TrEMBL record:
The protein's name: ROK family transcriptional regulator
InterPro entries noted in UniProt: ATPase_NBD, ROK, WH-like_DNA-bd_sf, WH_DNA-bd_sf
The species this protein was found in: Mycolicibacterium llatzerense
Domain of life: Bacteria
Family assignment from sequence similarity: Belongs to the ROK (NagC/XylR) family.
Amino acid sequence: MALSGTLVAPTPGDVFALIRGRGAITRSEIGRITGLSRTAVTARLSALEADNLVIEPEYAASTGGRPATQLMFNIDAGIVFAAAIGRSRTQLALCNLAGDILATADIDQEPGMRPDDLMPGLVRRIEALLDDSGRRGDRVFGIGLSLPGTVDQQRGASLDSPNMSGWDGVPLAPYFQHLTDAPLVMDNDANVIALAERRFGFADVQDMLVVKASTGLGAGIVMAGQLRRGAAAAAGDFGHSKISAAAGVPCRCGDTGCVEAVAGGWAIVRDLQADGYAVNHLRDVVALALSGDAKARSMIRDSGRHIGEVLAAAVNLINPAVLVVAGDMVGAYDVFVAGLRETLYGNASTLATRTLQVVPSVLQERVGIVGCATTVLDHILSPNMIDASLDARLQLSGA
């Protein structure tokens, strides 16, 4: 925000960011913090109120006389769609502008589904959520979507992801065109999970590693309080790191020797099916482990060992304060993390692990859709986007 004493005065978007961050604030406080005159504050608030982004409920905030009017971010000004697309399941949600989940639905999908196989049904399910929740007429601010694998955020498409056959380079925004022209914001599944975990569970942690252990494997990296995607947006894609335990074992990526080929959920399901188990997804394996099945528990613990072996190098490199375990494997957290700790602490340096905390996901089952909502909300409610939206609406009104 451009505060008093700078050459550029705070914009309506800057004022909105202040209100959104504070929760409730008075006009005089806005003027004091920003250095704007009373007239300038009123002008910016008028634009935000006209767009229904700011409301003025009254609270008795003074000890005498007329109570101060508190300005608040109107979290019910509209909604966003959230879609966490996985390899075996897609989670959908409608959320308000605070990221609160209003309605949800899951789509179980067959392996190898391509965009034309999945996306039309996904959009129809969102339409059903709108109707069932009575939100059909609400203003749609944006769509937050995640994919397993690398994402081209500019094009809104999967990028060089070997496990997403048929998805690479296919823009996903057109599938929503008949429903809304709101912007679509995409990211890798582990990245959105990392954003959600930091926002709602570890806001004070500046350096953390968030591991998604599910059908596939991936990690979100937060350093100095910022999500790190890497030069080619491939940071955290550790599932295809090579380990000796997987030597010669075919991976879904077409290579051999990847940690995912022995530790990913799909690999565990494959091996249990070969032993005659009636399992179709890692969630089935977790349920078996929780019921006491020795084979399932052993394989989940071994998965943790293999993953810990790879993550030890990451812990040495970035020295996180917290390592969060998320994804379907968190359902059997105690079993999984027993194996992970064994190799992680055995292979990482004593200094890097001295104060390291290994913890389960705070958001658990819904972390993916919360992360998708967080990702799109941070984009569309940023000062620059708010200013652009207000300018566009002003032009449309002919003012």
